Amino acid sequence: MPKVVLFVTDVAGSGGAETVFVNLIAELDRSEFTPIVLLPGPGWLADQLRRLDIQPIFQPMSGSFNRPLIKKLTQLIKQHQVAIINAHLFGSSIYCAIAAALTRTPLISTFHGIIDIAPDERLLAIKAWLVRRFSTKLVFVSNYLKQQLNSRLHAPESKCEIIYNGLAIERFDEALASNLRQQFNIPAEHKLVAMIGNANHSKGYDLVVQAASQVPDDITFLIAGEYSEEQLQTYRQSAEPNIVGTKVKFIGFVDNVASFLKAADMYLLSSRDEGFSLSTIEAMAAKVPVVCTRCGGPEEIIEPGVTGILIENENSKAIAQAITQVLNTEAQQTMIEQAWQYVKSNFSIETSAGRYFDLFHSLAKKEFNHKGNSRV
Q1: Which ranges of 135-267 does DSSP label H, i.e. alpha helix?
Q2: Which residue of 153, 172, 249, 296 is 20 to 30 Å from 70, comparing CA positions?
Q3: What H or E segment, with its residue span, contains residue 3?
Q4: What range does the domain containing 219 cover?
Q5: How many other CB atoms are found less than 10 A from the CB of residue 121?
Q6: Residue 112 near residue 21 (C-beta atoms within 8 A)
Q7: How many C-beta neighbours within 10 Å does residue 284 have?
Q8: Are residues 29 and 104 in the same domain?
Q9: How many domains does the chain contain in total?
Q10: What is the DSSP letter of 322?
Q11: Does the structure show a pLDDT above 60 at 247?
Q12: Is residue 376 part of a domain?
């Protein structure tokens, strides 16, 4: 009889964490595990799950203390005889910790980025206590993220696990390139620098628009991700006239990330802070050279000068110099091949999901006591 796993996240849109969430569920062996998914509402994530023949359940998750959410979680756990809960992001983990305590169900809380827990989070001490007390395991997507977040959570080492994100590498290697130059009216001779991520301060796009004025005119930056007109106006104000919209193009959400990356000449991660960086390993799998700021997670992915380039954080000049270097180096192909081999060996979805499934198997065999600890 398959064990039922309840997956919960408090975000309905697109992003790296949400992609990891879908990939994990897609890898489930349905003969061993039956997934139930609770989301805050419809959106990109629900659409992806329906492609897997999974109909998500919706429950609003906003509010300072959401009693209906706790009720919904406990009802689902009892109704479906849930064996394991896997909560993604801090908000979900808090409510799932309460439900886990009420139903004595093992809980795995997964954290994806520094922004999961704000330093000035309201009632942080209480929330952190709930999560560390009633989570059977806390999963962090990098050692860096564990170091940063566990300074706020204070979970014991015995409960902490590092599981790097993974992806279906062949899908990126075999993808056909999008015709980005034609689609966005870019001259055929221009080099394309791809970037992925919704616009926010942590992504460092203000530094990119500054760097764009420091590179040759035949280099165009394409940024895939959601943005607002207000954000574009802010970027315009921080750059030379006409940089945003000509040399730096914000193109919105891209459904086929693999084809987008395949069309690029290089990939740039300009972030101020990253718990891991799924897009970086996606670019490496697509055989595109990568340049990343030293912002936490990438240091556990990139071997400098061998599988990619690591540069100083918060430095537009360093960004411009690295881009020029990578696009003009003859050793680029060697770095691309080494990066692809490294991703294949270390960041496959089979390896990542397998670590989760090992936890699922282990926890499904244990009795859960009223203190939120697991015992044999």
Answers
A1: 143-153, 169-173, 180-183, 205-212, 229-237, 257-262
A2: 153
A3: strand 3-9
A4: 169-346
A5: 14
A6: no
A7: 30
A8: yes
A9: 2
A10: H
A11: yes
A12: no
Q: Which amino acid is at 299?
A: E
Question: Which amino acid is present at 211?
Answer: A
Task: Check whether residue 270 and residue 213 sit in a common domain.
Answer: yes
Please report, as a single letter, which amino acid is at residue 354.
G
Residue 16 and residue 278 in contact, taking contact as beta carbons nearer than 8 Å = yes
Give the residue carrying structure tokens 């394409």. Answer: 222
Confidence at residue 376, expressed as pLDDT on a 0 to 100 scale:
30
- CB contact at 8 A, 60 and 66: yes
Query: Other C-beta atoms within 10 Å of 214: how many?
Result: 14
Amino acid making up residue 361:
H
CA angle 248, 250, 256 (to 5 degrees): 120
In the 3-class helix/strand/coil scheme, how is 219-272 assigned residue by residue?
A: EEEEEEECCCHHHHHHHHHCCCCCCECCCEEEEECCCCHHHHHHCCCEEEECCC
Q: How far apart are CA 131 and CA 121, in angstroms?
A: 14
On whether the CB atoms of residues 137 and 364 are closer than 8 A, the answer is no
Question: 234 CB contacts (<8 Å, ≥6 apart)?
Answer: 206
How far does the chain reach from its first CA to its final CA, in angstroms? 21
The rounded distance, in Å, linking the Cα atoms of 7 and 353 is 14
∠ CA 241-242-247, nearest 5°, is: 125
pTM above 0.70, yes or no: yes
